[in-house]
Amino acid sequence: MRLLLIEDEVRLAKALQQTFSEHHYIVDLAHDGAVGLDLAQTDTYDIILVDVMLPTMSGYEVVRRLRKTGHATPILMLTARDAVDDRVEGLDAGADDYLVKPFATKELLARVRALSRRSGEMLDVEEVSVGAISIDSVSRSVYVSGEPYSLTGKEFQLLELFMRNPNQVLPKELILDRVWGVEAPMDRNAVEIYVHFLRKKLDRVRTERQIELAEMPVIETVRGVGYALRGGK
């Protein structure tokens, strides 16, 4: 599981990174709000932990901006400010949980596990819709404007990954791992090839069924990183 920790107290951040590593988490660090926001928007994490008092941009603002762009990753706020109004502000900004410093390591780990379970429950949702496209994960069916549409197995897995993470940049390495798993080819061109196939099919069905551009999500290339599904009312 991959975490992003946005914390300006360097010593605390390093200690927490070590603790999480000992429990088999992968942790990326950011020491100010702007850098943390950029990482959250350009990479993919299972949970984001954000301190409130940060240089360049407050934790509240980081969370607001993420939620405003449709970012659904679970967020845990960490802060020494324990007033009720502070907690309310964090939760209203879009945080999923709020932990006051100083905290016990056991409690922090427990809250991260709880957010992880909550995130897993969200992934168990059978039907997902983005704009004119809907998918059913159980029957592995695709519908465009309510009508069935045929995709290959790998194309379906790729589309499902994008639709469960709309507006998030997915690195090629992550796509290889999630779609191909242990069978992942060594060549990252496999991702480019299948994205190309999927784009052509989505563009073709949009034209054939006369779907408005604004209703049809598109797969955008993020140069040097990967891809993101954008658009779709």
From TrEMBL:
CDD domains hit by this protein: REC_OmpR_CusR-like, trans_reg_C
DNA-binding positions: 125-231
Keyword tRNA processing: no
GO BP terms, alphabetized: regulation of DNA-templated transcription
InterPro entries, per database record: CheY-like_superfamily, OmpR/PhoB-type_DNA-bd, Sig_transdc_resp-reg_C-effctor, Sig_transdc_resp-reg_receiver, WalR-like, WH-like_DNA-bd_sf
PROSITE patterns registered for this protein in UniProt: OMPR_PHOB, RESPONSE_REGULATORY
Ranges of residues in domain Response regulatory: 2-116
Origin: domain of life: Bacteria
One Gene Ontology term, aspect cellular component: protein-DNA complex
GO molecular function: phosphorelay response regulator activity; transcription cis-regulatory region binding
4-aspartylphosphate: residues bearing it: 51
Residue ranges constituting the OmpR/PhoB-type domain according to the UniProt record: 125-231
Entry keyword Phosphoprotein: yes
Keyword terms of this UniProt record: DNA-binding, Phosphoprotein, Transcription, Transcription regulation, Two-component regulatory system
Protein name: DNA-binding response regulator
Organism of derivation: Ferroacidibacillus organovorans
